[in-house]
Amino acid sequence: MNIEEFREVWEENKELRELAAKDKDRLNYHIMPTSGWVNDPNGLCQFNGVYHIYYQYSPFDVNGKLKLWGHITTEDFVKYQEHEPVLYPDYRYDQNGVYSGSAVVRNGKINYFYTGNVKHLDGDYDYIMTGREQNLIACSSEDGFNFGEKELIMTNTDFPSNLSLHVRDPKVYPKNGVDYMVLGARDDNSTGCVLVLKGKDLKDWEYHTIIYSDEKFGYMWECPDLFDLNGETVLVTCPQGVPEEGYIYKNVHQNGYFLMSGDLAAKDVKLSKFRLFDYGFDFYAPQTFEDESGRRILIGWMGIPDADYTNRTTENGWQHALTMPRELILKNGIIYQRPIEEIKSLRGNNRTFTADEFKDLEVENLSFELCAEFEKCNEFKLNLRNDISLSFDKSKGLIELNMGESGCGRDVRYTYCDEVRNIDVYSDISAFEIFINDGEIVFTTRAYTDGIQKIGFEKLDGAAKVYMYDMKKIVFGIDEF
Question: What is the DSSP string of 171-238?
């Protein structure tokens, strides 16, 4: 599909956009597709004061088949503008999808790197070792809207011979005058790893090394991201094929980070134990960037591939969303996540409750923020909708998110926790982002309910004070294509 074909099909699909716009499950303060499907955030950057959010986009298909790069900008994370997509599968080396990638602001322009997907249909292929191409492609823009010609950098034949054909999702890490590029990979023994290339001034890329964990940790590592944070080096990735371990790794695929030590230039690095970013049902493919004020900001896909639960929004022509932007802070080996400061400007009506008052509160507006501060809390059960609850049991050292029937197949997720000092629940119409202990633990999930909901403490052993804010809608405009 090229730009002319896109515009023609866009006109033909006006009814799909109208159907999606009327859906009662549309979100108030999260980015979501006008119609169709959205997944991985791509090319996140700030350029001349403007934040550019690109993302995997299938505007005419709720199941996300042929993917483009959609494009949204904002200057304040309150007012957003959706623009015409910027990258189309119109090139021999990306003809079956413009897959995930990233951006580097340098030399007065935005430099992009992404994976072009090609799937061969002329034989009996396993599509792991045969039958596909994952091509590394570069392009650039002087304004973030108009893109130059695509340049093929590498194909699978340029990658090490012990890798499968699954090598994708490039992200650049500049360090000491050298540009390193990490790509998620699966080797020929079905072991997940990260391929590292080395270049100079975003050119002359060559093989550098492959990073593995000490023990096999899944068969594929998607969406790698390498960056420095508070004096540590962080390697983010999304491992696939990791077995459950106690109460964690319950999702079909995982998301999270290693702390990386050693000398990357000398190809001598070691990874810490993996830690999840998010323990909920709907979080995957996070990407970070450093903005012009020096913040490390993360945006994730509020969804997950290959899940066995559903989203009822598909009945109305759209599926999935992106998380709120989160600022990352690393302390004592743990990354804390908090919604960026600008989100507070969406707060509306403020109410304060004692723990005794915060019971069976009937709520019609499901767009709210709920903050609870605890003292000596041993146990609680907090109802977030009629059949959705967040519970803590100090004696078991566990937090539990129970979705009930409103999860549309989502059931229960847990994580280990010795104490709860505070929680900050962001409820949107059909989504939750829940931050515990200043963002040390996070749960993200979609949720589908109807009618007035009852929220509040069903059980509490301890003391708590509760603050509640109505959340306003973000302003969202769409260009005429």
Answer: EEEEETTEEEEEEEEEETTS-EEEEEEEEETTEEEEEEEEE--SS---SEEEEEEEEEETTEEEEEEE
Residue of 226, 229, 231 lying closest to 271 (CA atoms): 226
Burial of 66 (0-12, 13-18, 19+ CB in 10 A): middle
Residue 59 CA to its chain's centroid (Å)? 18
- Rounded Cα distance between 69 and 63, Å, is 16
Whether 98 contacts 114, CB under 8 Å: yes
Residue 14 φ then ψ, to 5°: -60, -40
Spatial contact of 69 and 103, defined as CB atoms under 8 Å apart: no
DSSP code per residue over 337-364: EEE-GGGGGGEEEEEEEETTT-SSEEES
pLDDT tens digits, residue range 183-232?
A: 999 999 999 999 999 999 999 999 999 999 999 999 999 999 999 999 99
Catalytic residue numbers? 40
Residue the block writes with tokens 């980015």: 31
C-beta of residue 387 within 8 angstroms of C-beta of residue 378: no
Question: Do residues 174 and 261 make contact, with C-beta atoms less than 8 angstroms apart?
Answer: no
Quick check: pTM over 0.85?
yes
Structure tokens at 23: 């859906």
Residue that is written with structure tokens 């998620």 in the block? 184
- Give the contacts of 37 (CB within 8 A, at least 6 positions apart): 57, 58, 59, 61, 62, 63, 64, 318, 319, 320
